[in-house]
Design a protein that fits this description.
This protein is mainly beta. 0% of the residues lie in helices and 45% in strands. It has one domain.
Length: 97
């Protein structure tokens, strides 16, 4: 069996676990952090080659993180929906491509 080829590795937040990765159309990927730096959301506009923080989950609950994220595109509306480990649902309606 052939080994998987990894083209690049990028450290976003040292010692944190990255959860809730989701492709959200075109070249955009989002993810959430967990671990010592829980609850931060990061966005990439180049398929994950580079990342920037777009803020905290923002619920005000301690030790909070995105647990799962999905991207929905019905051809008319594009939405990113995420659930958290504390029972919140976060969503964002994305602009039309």
């Amino acid at each position: 069996m052939a080994e998987a080829r990894i083209d690049n590795t990028v450290r976003i937040v040292p010692r944190s676990r990255m959860d809730a990765l989701a492709y959200s159309g075109k070249v955009v990927v989002i993810c959430g952090t967990r671990g010592p730096h829980s609850g931060f959301i990061h966005k990439s506009r180049d398929y994950g080659a580079t990342w920037r923080s777009i803020g905290n989950v923002g619920t005000g609950v301690a030790n909070h993180w995105l647990d799962h994220v999905i991207y929905i595109n019905d051809g008319t509306v594009r939405v990113v929906v995420g659930g958290t480990n504390q029972g919140f649902i976060l969503y964002s309606v994305l602009p039309s491509p």
